């Protein structure tokens, strides 16, 4: 039998009522709760009066929900380190349908007949990334914000299109339309929320053809570049060019400089680059689409500049 110190050391200073009663009396437990411990969830105690940390909230939720539970949805994505997640006050937990546990406080419990095989992160059971993402997309109301999250997951190669389609086919009907919309955006080659904004403007503009999204081009120098959008007939590229879309914690410390250099390299190769910040497709949509239309119209019929090749017409398969 484990001692109190061993239990607390293994569980981030947390202990359940059942565990506590194996190492102390009911009276001693009541005294500790009254004087020095904190009730974090029903039957789950923190061995201090401090506010629980994020890691302790995760552990407490799993202890409350039981041994078959898994961290799920947005909580699982946060554990995996996915960026662009909205604020969420809940720790989201998935349990099998027969488990009789209820949501309480910061713990949000969902039941399912399709429990996945968990991954383990820091000793905690977590649903696989594809299940976490599809549950999040199906639940979350803002399609644009969920696309930012989904694109980040895809770019990190955390899921495959096959897994995403399988979740659409096998998951509940609720939220399926959002999942299908998301799959259409990702399969079109969209890999960020600003790219979605630009694509929406392009599709709504009569007479403007849809470009290739995130193709891979080889320039005459041999350098490989991938513009956000590329119209072959007019050798015109669209590029999101802003620090807010190329922050160091997401894409690396040199991301913005590399984006600027990419534009210079494409222009030197004879490609007309229309650049704008990540916010402008929403805050100055008419300006953005008029600049794109002007460039595509002005350069119509030029085709690929000499020495420029299309290596790949879309992002890599995912």
Descriptive report:
It is a single chain. The longest helix has 14 residues, at 255-268. The protein has helices at residues 4-10, 17-20, 26-35, 54-65, 73-79, 129-139, 143-155, 161-170, 176-188, 193-203, 248-251, 255-268, 280-283, 285-298, and strands at residues 14-16, 38-41, 44-46, 70-71, 91-96, 107-112, 119-121, 124-126, 212-213, 216-218, 224-225, 229-231, 236-240, 272-276, 309-312. With 318 residues, the protein is α+β, with helices and mostly antiparallel strands. The strands form 5 sheets. A 4-stranded mixed sheet has the order 9-12-13-14, with helices on both faces. It has a 3-stranded antiparallel sheet with strand order 1-3-2. Helix 8 runs antiparallel to helix 9. It has 3 domains: 4-52, no CATH class; 59-188, no CATH class; 193-312, no CATH class.
Give the arrangement of secondary structure elements:
Blueprint: H1 4-10, E1 14-16, H2 17-20, H3 26-35, E2 38-41, E3 44-46, H4 54-65, E4 70-71, H5 73-79, E5 91-96, E6 107-112, E7 119-121, E8 124-126, H6 129-139, H7 143-155, H8 161-170, H9 176-188, H10 193-203, E9 212-213, E10 216-218, E11 224-225, E12 229-231, E13 236-240, H11 248-251, H12 255-268, E14 272-276, H13 280-283, H14 285-298, E15 309-312
Parallel strand pairs: 5-6, 13-14
Antiparallel strand pairs: 1-3, 2-3, 4-5, 7-8, 9-12, 10-11, 10-15, 12-13
